[in-house]
Amino acid sequence: xxxxxxxEYLVGVLAALVLGTILVFTALANRRALxxxxxxxxxxxxxxxADGVYVGTPVRLAGVPVGTVIKSELTDGHRATLTFRxxxxxxxxxxxxxxxxxxxxxxxxxxxxxxxxxxxxxxxGARMAYTQDSVIIEDLIAHIVSEAKAAxxxxxxP
Length: 158
Known about the structure:
The chain is of the alpha/beta class. The chain contains two helices and eight strands. It folds into two domains: about 1-40; about 40-145, no CATH class. It has an eight-stranded mixed β-sheet with strand order 7-1-4-3-2-6-5-8, with no helix packed on it. A hairpin with a 6-residue loop joins strand 5 (about 95-100) and strand 6 (about 110-115). The protein starts with a helix and ends with a helix.
């Protein structure tokens, strides 16, 4: 075997080892991702408005992250249907509400789960009956301005 052939052989062996290592790490990473979804729970909720909520938006319970939005679609009735995966099985009452909230005035949106008082709990894959849509700042300001105008008009009339 010549010196050039040995180099080519060595480069081939090293390339095969690197490729094998990459495949092993990829397989381990995929296995870990499957393990993380093993104890997960998915829930679905319908909203009239879900402005600012996208796939990957956090889902919180008492301010603590417990999952993420994994699917967002528009139904035939022109409503936003969000599916979210909770990272663990939670005993949430059937009347738990899903609320689209904002972090601060101009912050990002998230889904806040607010447990109710029912004795029955939501099963994995359940559709939540109680939701609260996102508040649009422009709509809120317009409402405040119209209320102020109405109050001012009332004072002007003797």
